[in-house]
Design brief:
- This protein has 968 residues and is an alpha/beta fold.
- It is 38% helix and 11% strand.
- The protein has 32 helices and 26 strands.
- The chain has a seven-stranded mixed beta sheet with strand order 2-8-7-6-5-3-4, sandwiched between helices.
- Helix 22 (618-625) links the parallel strand 17 and strand 18 (629-633).
- The radius of gyration is 28 Å and the shape is globular.
Length: 968
């Protein structure tokens, strides 16, 4: 065994495993299996044009070399991003811990109580600090959260406003530039008319349905918006506020003015800058809008025994239910980052957060005094952490600060802003003093000197500023007086020992990939290799502001450009944008480039998007958000696209056809042989083809989107390219496009990026969640062309192995023309209703066997979708098959008229099995240890089945007092 070959560490199947697997599947070779699985006319004729894979050691040396090319300056740029300090106990026990970063979205609540509690903490923190009644479990970034607020408020307009078509949305000129750009992107397809202006001059006309304010403003001014909000309410105009979460420790929370939505980012609560992400945004609103809030909400309910339990509430993946009627396509959260931000609040508590906020504010007062000391004008009358300063020579100041390795925000030729943060210490402030002093002397090198006069001047400024813990610098009307974070969880774990144990306590309640295979169809829970993850903790990657000059981020620039090039090769396309920071964002971005392309051809009227009935629910939701009308095509009895129906719909809408959205291999886990004909039909009628890249794990190295005839695809880097799910995020959803769509790739208003005719921003940062892109870069770099292709083949082999091992006991709903599955398959559980067994019972019983359930009831109700990935060993595949076969025997033993059986009562908790009483017709051993292997590594679900309906009727989405739990 060559120990330097990364593929042998990533891929679970060994050479000796192949022959017995081939015998089970019924092939003589891997090539025969691939031939029988993938239509020959779309097979790649040449291997991927990528370098040979490198060893883990070589990759780590290389990525260190790239990191060294980033220049870590002290960045005071602000604009929604701030250096923060990640407590080491959180970094080591969450960010670097596979028990947290390899977990799946908590749809199976019984084995996800740890993450759910951590997210409930996050929601409570956000609700408390914003003064709002309800918060979700995070969104993608501040700008997209603001856009979600704009569209949610559109949805909840009054009947009169809808009748009068009130479509104007006021945006304060104080709003962050990246947020404004994203609002422009999102508003246009929906017919929303943005009006940008001074909030003090707003006329509150009834043509407006909503408004967005920034608190504090983009350059630091803190406005008192109370009277604005009061007038808006009088005129039935709903108000959203984008707020800095740390400032809300000291400033009046917007909820106390009566606003409708508060959004922002929790990045400065211990999350690395990471050149733009990933970071967890927050979205808080009134309980009246609980059924319109985008994203996920964690709520308290009870389990079968009446004990308190947590679960995702209110069908929070609404697009899978409402599809083209959905108001949002958000399919993910930033769970890992939200967990970290919530733990930051748990660790520091209200007193610790107040100390940090006061330190930041008082240091900002020092900088303001320094500016005045040198004769500069400080322009903000009220501020929290940012001063806006008029200086005599901005160009010279730039030279001085760059010499001193400092970044300011340069507003224009006379004005700068300086945003301080938690990591700013007295030495840093002295350095700022020296920069101001150098400017007055007209000598850039003086910023490096510390002489007697400098220290005397600095001491004088220090003596003139009285540090007041009661925050009298902030006017009385803007000071926060309400308490926050009073719940016990925020007042208990302030030592490292206690927090470490609390994090471990929660981790033990969750089944993650470090325990067993998570065979989720459509979600690809593969190995997130340690060598791919390690660089995320390095300062030279984590501490780079997304708006620094490009020459300070050369390591990032080289890695991101190479990753774009790698993805171009893999997809066969001409260009890539890494900006979309989730798969749903990628869908939307791809459709918006198609829309821009049609407009450039003088065919802006093309607005019909054809979508197969089997498509992901985000597809129709994304199409509607992009201003398109959805036309659904049928699937045939084999689960394939009904080609004749598609041809008919394409002909019917030929003049207005904009796009087809297609998943390939299909959502049913099959390589449809008619795909090239399908894409040609769309092109013949003037449309473009969007390929949903959710199933790229079955394509890489064997076929690609360009070969099947697509024009654009998004890629889920958290699926095919090894970014971890992290409990439901981070995600990255880049889009790869053909030559004709390249000019329209998205831009950013602060840092130039995108195509020559670029659409406005899709997410806040120029390169989206750049830090997470290091993982996929490493994955591709270490596997190389051969390893990537081998991984795809193994994913297909593993799926077919499971299919054939379960043959005769479980029916696979759809297969290809030669009886093969792609990398996943749909198992039909509907026949078991004759025994009184539902698909949910199988999902819950798998927990007793030590497995997370496959995807339940998607894309077909009453089924499970299984995807083993290439990372799993034969031994693990066999354990899963044995579990499924064991459950099949239990189904045969069950009777519809007797629900007291091992499946209906699953999962079985430790409390049940060790109870003094046992009132079940099967043994405790059968309940908890159904197969011998289970006892070697038993995972205990921490609760019994959750009562979903009770939780939705009695919605509690924050850490409630203990009495509320008692009522549950």
């Amino acid at each position: 065994m060559n120990t330097e070959v990364f593929a042998s560490r990533h891929i679970g199947i060994t050479e000796k495993d192949l022959q017995p697997m081939f015998e089970t599947v019924g092939v003589d070779s891997m090539e025969q299996l691939i031939y029988e699985t993938i239509p020959d006319d779309i097979r790649l004729k040449e291997p991927l044009n990528l370098p040979k894979g490198v060893s883990e050691h070589e990759f780590l040396a290389h990525i260190q070399e790239m990191a060294d090319q980033n220049k870590v300056f002290k960045s005071y740029i602000g604009l929604g991003y701030h250096e923060s300090l990640t407590p080491s106990v959180i970094k080591r026990n969450i960010l670097e811990n596979p028990g947290w970063y390899t977990a799946y979205t908590p749809y199976q609540a019984e084995i996800a109580q740890g993450r759910l509690e951590a997210l409930l903490n996050f929601q409570t923190m956000v609700s408390d600090l914003t003064g709002m009644e309800l918060a979700n479990a995070s969104l993608l970034d501040e700008s997209t959260a603001a856009a979600e607020a704009m569209t949610m408020l559109l949805d909840v307009r009054s009947r009169q406003q809808k009748k009068e078509e009130a479509l104007k949305f006021f945006v304060s000129e104080e709003v962050l530039p990246q947020t404004l750009s994203l609002l422009q992107t999102r508003s246009k397809p929906l017919g929303i008319k943005l009006v940008i202006g001074n909030h003090e001059e707003f006329d509150f006309s009834n043509e407006f349905y909503g408004a967005l304010l920034q608190y504090p403003g983009k350059h630091g001014q803190v406005h008192d918006y109370a009277s604005f909000v009061e007038k808006a309410k009088e005129n039935e105009i709903k108000v959203a506020v984008a707020a800095d979460i740390l400032s809300l420790v000291l400033l009046t929370p917007p909820g106390e003015w009566g606003v409708d939505v508060v959004v922002g980012t929790t990045q400065r609560f211990g999350i690395p800058l990471g050149y733009g992400g990933p970071h967890a945004a927050f979205f808080a609103t009134k309980e009246a809008y609980k059924r319109s809030i985008p994203g996920r909400i964690i709520g308290i309910t009870k389990d079968t025994d009446g004990n308190p339990a947590l679960r995702m509430a209110l069908q929070t993946r609404e697009q899978h239910i409402k599809r083209d009627k959905a108001t949002s396509n958000i399919c993910t959260a930033q769970v890992l980052l939200a967990v970290m931000a919530g733990m930051y609040a748990v660790y520091h508590g209200p007193k610790g957060l107040k100390y940090i906020a006061e330190k930041v504010h008082n240091n900002t007062q020092l900088v303001a005094k320094m500016a005045v000391h040198f004769g500069f004008e400080q322009l903000n009358s009220v501020f929290f952490d940012t001063v806006k300063v008029e200086v005599p020579d901005v160009e010279l100041l730039k030279q001085i600060t760059e010499y001193a390795k400092i970044n300011f925000n340069y507003i224009d030729e006379k004005t700068i802003s300086i945003s301080l943060n938690e990591a700013t210490g007295q030495e840093d402030i002295l350095q700022l003093f020296r920069c101001f002093e150098a400017l007055t002397h007209g000598n850039k090198t003086k910023s490096a000197e510390v002489d007697k006069n400098t220290m005397e001047g600095f001491t004088q400024v220090l003596s003139e500023v009285v540090i007041r813990p009661d925050n009298n610098f902030i006017p009385e009307t803007l000071q926060r007086k309400s308490p926050f974070l009073e719940h016990e969880v925020f007042n208990s774990y302030h030592s490292e020992t206690e927090l470490m144990r609390y994090i471990k306590k929660l981790e033990r309640k969750d089944l993650a990939l470090n325990h067993s295979m998570i065979s989720l169809g459509s979600c690809t829970m593969k190995l997130n290799a340690a060598s791919e993850m390690l660089p995320l903790s390095w300062a030279n990657w984590g501490n780079i502001h997304p708006f620094v000059p490009l020459e300070q981020a050369q390591g990032y620039q080289k890695v991101l450009k190479e990753l774009e090039s790698q993805l171009n090769v893999i997809t066969g396309f001409a260009a890539t944008s890494l900006q979309p920071n989730s798969g749903a964002q990628g869908e939307y971005a791809g459709l918006m480039t198609i829309k821009a392309y049609h407009e450039s051809c003088g065919e802006g009227h093309r607005n019909i998007c054809i979508i197969p009935a089997s498509a992901h629910g985000t597809n129709p939701a994304s199409a509607v958000m992009a201003g398109m009308k959805v036309v659904v095509t049928k699937t045939d009895e084999h689960g394939n696209i009904d080609v004749s129906d598609l041809e008919e719909k394409a002909q019917q809408h030929s003049e207005n056809l904009a796009a087809l959205m297609v998943t390939y291999p299909s959502t049913h886990g099959v390589f449809e042989s008619s795909i090239k004909h399908i894409t040609q039909v769309i092109h013949d009628h003037g449309g473009q083809v969007y390929m949903d890249g959710a199933n790229m794990n079955a394509q890489v190295g064997l076929t690609n989107p360009a070969t099947i005839g697509a024009d654009v695809c998004h890629l889920n880097l958290h699926k095919t390219f090894a970014i971890p799910h992290g409990g439901g995020g981070p995600g990255v959803g880049p889009i790869c496009v053909a030559e004709q769509l390249k000019p329209f790739l998205p831009s950013n208003p602060v840092v130039e990026t995108g195509g020559e005719q670029a659409i406005t921003a899709i997410s806040a940062a120029p390169w989206g969640s750049a830090l997470a892109c290091l993982i996929s870069y490493g994955y591709i770099k270490m596997l190389g062309a051969e390893g990537l292709t081998e991984a795809t083949k193994m994913a297909i082999l593993n799926a077919n192995y499971i299919k054939d091992r379960l043959k005769g006991k479980f029916d696979v709903l759809y297969t290809g023309e030669r009886g093969r599955a792609a990398h996943e398959m749909i198992i039909d559980c509907r026949p078991f209703k004759a025994h009184g067994i539902e698909v949910t019972d199988i999902a819950k019983r798998l927990m007793d066997y030590g497995f997370h359930a496959p995807t339940v009831s998607f894309p077909v109700a009453g089924t499970i979708m299984v995807e083993p990935t290439e990372s799993e060993s034969l031994a693990e595949l066999d354990r899963f098959c044995e579990a499924m076969l064991g459950i099949r025997e239990e189904i045969d033993e069950a009777h519809a008229d007797d629900p007291n059986n091992v499946l209906k009562n699953a999962p079985h908790t430790l409390g049940m099995v060790t109870s003094d009483s046992w009132e079940y017709p099967y043994s405790r051993q059968k309940a908890a240890f159904p197969l011998p292997y289970v006892s070697d590594n038993k995972f205990w679900p921490s609760i019994r089945r959750t009562d979903e309906a009770f939780g939705d009727r009695n919605l509690i989405c924050t850490c409630a007092p203990i009495e509320a739990y008692a009522e549950v």
